[in-house]
Every structure is written in C-alpha cells, then in structure tokens.
Amino acid sequence: MLMGEYNHSLDAKGRVILPADFRAELGESFIITKGLDNCLFIYPQSEWEQLSVKLRQLPLAKTEARAFVRFFFAGARQVELDKQGRFLIPATLRQHASLKKDAVLIGVSNRIEVWSKDEWLKYNEEITPSVSAIAETLAELGI
C-alpha cells in the first residue's frame, strides 16, 4: 500500500527522486499521467492495467466517458527510474500540475500523487475545514 508524504525538488531537467518507500511497490517502471485536482497520478503497472480495463469498458457513445478516457490516456507515459532513483516528469505533465521546483509526493493507497508544493498547501487549506463533514458523510455510508 502506498502512503506517506514526501517533499522533493525537481532538478533542471524535470527529474525528481522517488522516495525509497515507494520504490518497492512501483518497481523500476511505472505509469505517470494527468491526475485530478491539478496533480499527477503515478500507478504501478498492475494498477494501471486494472484501471485501463475499467476505462475501456466505459460507453463510447457518452461524451463524458470519451473525454475522461482521453484525459487519462493522452497524458500517460511509462517512465523508468535512473540509477539515482529519479524519474523524469515530461514537460506537458509538469505544466498540467504547475510543477516548477518543489514537489510533494503522496501515497494514496493504490497510486502516488505528485503535487506542486504551492498547490498542495493550497489544497490542504481548502479541504481541512471540510474533513469533519466528509467524515460524517462517510460514516453514514458505513466507513
């Protein structure tokens, strides 16, 4: 399971270190793509395959389904770690997530999210007051 929060800097080429705690789960090669909420999603190969199957089952006739599939697949890239444990974030994905220098990598169960530090701080300021209300709603759902 992927969990935890790690702060790292991008180098001049757009590479970032993958925290050692994540490497065992991801392996040497994994998928990075556009994520929701202005971040990037990183999936282990096995999780990406499961998501791909689900996305391919969406109805082609639905505009929203086509848009969602395009969003995830068009931005997706297979990346590999270098000998220093770094991976390159493609320029288009850095732009999507407003990544310039400081990045935050967070484990979210089956994926990693990559955030610009500024966007992560802003998101946390916005969501923190709502967490109690979200928890109450989830409790009503039995979680």
From TrEMBL:
Query: Which segments does the entry list as coiled coil?
Result: none
Protein origin, superkingdom? Bacteria
Family per UniProt?
Belongs to the MraZ family.
Q: How does it assemble?
A: Forms oligomers.
Q: In which organism is this protein found?
A: Anaerovibrio lipolyticus
Domain spans labelled SpoVT-AbrB: 5-47, 76-119
Give a yes or no for keyword Metal-binding in this entry: no
Q: Does the keyword Coiled coil apply?
A: no
The name this protein carries in UniProt is Transcriptional regulator MraZ
* Alphabetically ordered keywords of this record: Cell cycle, Cell division, Cytoplasm, DNA-binding, Repeat, Transcription, Transcription regulation
InterPro entries per the record? MraZ, MraZ_C, MraZ_dom, MraZ_N, MraZ_sf, SpoVT-AbrB_dom, SpoVT-AbrB_sf
- Subcellular location per the Swiss-Prot or TrEMBL entry: Cytoplasm, Nucleoid
The biological process GO terms on file are: cell division; negative regulation of DNA-templated transcription initiation
Tell me the GO molecular function terms.
DNA-binding transcription factor activity; transcription cis-regulatory region binding
Query: Which NCBIfam families does this UniProt record tie to the protein?
Result: division/cell wall cluster transcriptional repressor MraZ (TIGR00242)
Recorded GO cellular component terms are: cytoplasm; nucleoid
